[in-house]
Each structure stands twice: as structure tokens, then as C-alpha cells.
């Protein structure tokens, strides 16, 4: 054992509290640490300091200190990704510790040789390498999960308009006269292609069941007229509502404007309508809205089968669906609606009772009164 390293290890033991305090003072000011409490901020660092001191004392520069398992640099990288750190902040954490070690050596009057400095640096560099590798790997997996689920969400949203196209084609085929052979051939071709697209969408939905992640949404907010948006949705879904023998009323005030992403709000209302259609065949659905003090409240209300209160707590969770197979869906529609509403900075709730219909109500604040919250 090199005498200077043994002396450094002893000095680090004597000044361990100072060493950690210096590290914490710097790291607590990083942007990624803004929302961390004490235990989350410290994570494995006190344990790492003890193991680093032991490694220095034994000149153990041949292996990473505590490579795996709980409380290791490897686990630390994943923890910091979940906490919201960026990768530069992870590297900085260990470099702050490196600087504090050299400060202790200077205070103790120790002049480390180049080979002794290499021992200290190798221990810390190995910790950085493991933490960064885990951070980067988990970040790549998260991005992959987001893309896969976003693709599945798009596939889910395609099902309602595709169903409307299929029903419209069926209605046109019934109305065609026997002499319209050319048009009948075109309709049959249309129906075959709709069936192929539907099969592709089913495949995507089935494949996505093996993945779980949160989707990020990019908003393009502007002032929009809500009544025409709802009316266009009802026209697009007319074949579906007629097939279900459901009357849908647009009760949105014609003068009402709101601050939101028209494309995403169309998706949200489409999913809520699709949900109500499953629960209220032969019934009525109302789409309404009103101005509030800082935005707009929207709702979709039906007089269908209703929802059991015990399902309220998880009804917006991914894969949560009705236990009745006849009414069960993919479990994505309401989750998509919740993400869209929360991306606008709003909130959503459900009010219902069995056999007394259901009302899904959400608020969309103005951009100025409530900046969008990050999703995912």
C-alpha cells in the first residue's frame, strides 16, 4: 500500500462529513435537483464515499466500486434519469466529489504522486462510466417505449373514423341500384381495403399490449371555435351513431371560443364519444361546454349503462376497461383523453352511477392562466 494513499484514506475518514457537505452544497443547486428531498438527493453517495475510501486505502483501482446492486453507481444513473437530471449533471456530481477529495488531500498537506492520483481518478471515473451507461441505456429505452405507445395511440384513434368509413360504405352498398355495377365494384374494393387497414390496426394494438409507457404530447395552441369542431366530429361519425341508433346533440354555444390544440381536442372528444357509444346504444349523448373564469369546461354526457363507483379511481389508467366483455375496449381511449387534457394544464373527472348514464367533464385553462404540464 502506498503511504500517501493510506494517509489520504485516513484524512477522508476524518473529514467525511465535510466531504459530503461540500458535495451536497453544489449538487443541491443543480436544476435536476430542484424537486428532490434529502434522501433522494443523497441516494447512494454516502455509501459510495465509504466504499471509495476503502478502495483508496487498499489501492483497489482494478474494479469499479460496488458495480451493481442497490446503492451503486449503476443504480444511481437510473435514479437520476427518473429524477429529471440530464447526463451532464450526473457527470458533474462525481466530479464535484473528485474535487472535494483533492481539497481534503491539500488541506491534510498530502502531495499525491501521478500514480496515486490515477488511483483516485480511476475509482471515480469507473463510477461515472457505470452511472452514465445506465442513464443512457434507460433513456434510450424510455424513448423507444414512448414511440411504441404513441404509435399505438395513433392506431387506436384511427379505429373510430375507419369504422365510420366501413359503415358508410355498407350503407351506400345497400342504396345502390342493381344496375350500378361499376360503383358496386368500387365499393367492394373500398371495403376490402378498409378490412386490411383494420387488420393492421388490430395487429398494432395487440403488439402494444406487451409495452407500457407514457406518451409525450406536443401542443400547438391557438384560439378556436369549439362548436364547428364538435359539429365536424358528429358529421364524421354519423354512420357510426346511426348504426348504434344513438342521438348525439351538439350543445356547445356557437359563440364559444377556447385556447387549445384543435387536433388533440378533436381526438379527445372523439374518444369520449366512442366510449359513450359503447355504453349507450339506442340512447342519447350530449356534447356541451361553457366558459369558466380561466378557460373552458367541456363534457360528454350519456344516458347509458353507467359506471360503477369503484372503477372511478383507475378509469383513466392505461389498459383499464369495462369488466363486461360486451362493452370492453382497448383500455387506451380514456388514458389518451387524460393525457391530452393534462398536456393543456387541465383536469378531467367522471360522474356516474350504474344505469344512470355517465358524464366525462374536463377543463381546458387558457395558456396564460395554466402553462401546459409535461406528460411522461
Overview of this protein structure:
This protein is an alpha+beta fold. It contains twelve helices and seven strands. Strands 2-4-5-7-6 form a five-stranded mixed β-sheet. It has a two-stranded antiparallel sheet with strand order 1-3. A hairpin with a 5-residue loop joins strand 6 and strand 7. Helix 1 packs antiparallel against helix 4 and helix 6 runs antiparallel to helix 7. The protein is elongated and about 100 Å long.
- Spans of 5+ residues with little confidence (pLDDT < 50)? 209-215
Provide the residue-averaged pLDDT.
Answer: 81
Total helices: the number is 12
* Global outline: elongated
The multimeric state of the shown protein is single chain
Order of helices and strands: HHHHHHHHEHHEEHEEHEE
Major beta sheet summary:
5 strands, mixed
User: Could you give the count of β-strands?
Assistant: 7
The proportion of strand residues reads 5-15%
Question: From the helix content, strand content and strand pairing, which structural class follows?
Answer: alpha+beta
Overall radius of gyration: 30 Å
Amino acid at each position: 500500500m502506498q503511504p500517501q494513499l493510506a494517509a489520504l484514506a485516513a484524512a477522508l475518514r476524518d473529514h467525511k462529513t465535510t466531504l459530503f457537505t461540500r458535495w451536497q452544497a453544489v449538487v443541491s443547486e443543480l436544476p435536476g435537483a430542484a424537486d428532490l428531498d434529502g434522501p433522494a438527493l443523497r441516494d447512494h453517495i454516502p455509501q459510495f464515499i465509504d466504499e471509495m475510501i476503502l478502495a483508496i486505502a487498499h489501492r483497489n483501482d482494478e474494479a469499479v466500486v460496488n458495480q451493481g446492486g442497490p446503492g451503486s453507481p449503476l443504480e444511481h444513473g437510473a435514479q437520476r434519469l427518473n429524477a429529471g437530471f440530464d447526463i451532464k449533471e450526473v457527470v458533474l456530481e462525481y466530479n464535484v466529489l473528485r474535487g472535494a477529495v483533492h481539497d481534503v488531500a491539500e488541506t491534510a498537506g498530502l502531495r499525491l504522486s501521478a500514480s496515486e492520483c490515477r488511483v483516485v481518478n480511476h475509482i471515480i471515473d469507473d463510477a461515472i462510466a457505470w452511472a452514465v451507461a445506465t442513464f443512457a441505456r434507460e433513456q434510450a429505452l424510455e424513448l423507444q417505449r414512448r414511440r411504441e405507445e404513441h404509435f399505438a395511440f395513433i392506431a387506436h384513434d384511427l379505429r373510430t373514423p375507419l369504422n365510420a368509413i366501413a359503415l358508410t360504405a355498407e350503407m351506400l352498398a345497400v342504396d345502390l341500384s342493381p344496375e350500378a355495377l361499376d360503383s358496386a365494384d368500387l365499393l367492394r374494393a373500398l371495403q376490402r381495403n378498409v378490412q386490411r387497414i383494420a387488420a393492421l390496426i388490430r395487429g398494432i394494438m395487440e403488439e402494444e399490449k406487451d409495452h407500457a409507457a407514457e406518451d409525450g404530447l406536443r401542443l400547438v395552441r391557438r384560439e378556436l371555435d369549439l362548436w364547428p369542431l364538435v359539429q365536424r366530429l358528429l358529421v364524421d361519425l354519423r354512420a357510426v351513431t346511426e348504426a348504434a341508433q344513438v342521438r348525439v346533440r351538439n350543445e356547445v354555444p356557437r359563440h364559444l371560443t377556447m385556447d387549445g390544440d384543435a387536433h388533440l381536442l378533436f381526438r379527445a372528444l372523439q374518444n369520449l364519444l366512442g366510449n359513450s357509444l359503447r355504453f349507450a346504444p339506442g340512447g342519447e349523448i350530449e356534447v356541451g361546454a361553457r366558459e369558466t373564469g380561466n378557460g373552458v369546461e367541456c363534457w360528454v354526457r350519456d344516458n347509458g349503462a353507467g359506471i360503477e363507483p369503484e372503477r372511478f379511481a383507475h378509469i383513466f389508467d392505461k389498459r383499464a376497461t369495462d369488466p363486461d366483455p360486451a362493452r370492453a375496449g382497448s383500455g387506451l381511449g380514456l388514458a389518451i383523453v387524460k393525457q391530452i387534457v393534462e398536456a393543456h394544464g387541465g383536469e378531467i373527472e367522471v360522474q356516474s352511477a350504474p344505469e344512470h348514464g355517465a358524464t366525462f367533464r374536463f377543463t381546458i385553462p387558457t395558456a396564460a392562466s395554466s402553462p401546459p404540464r409535461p406528460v411522461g
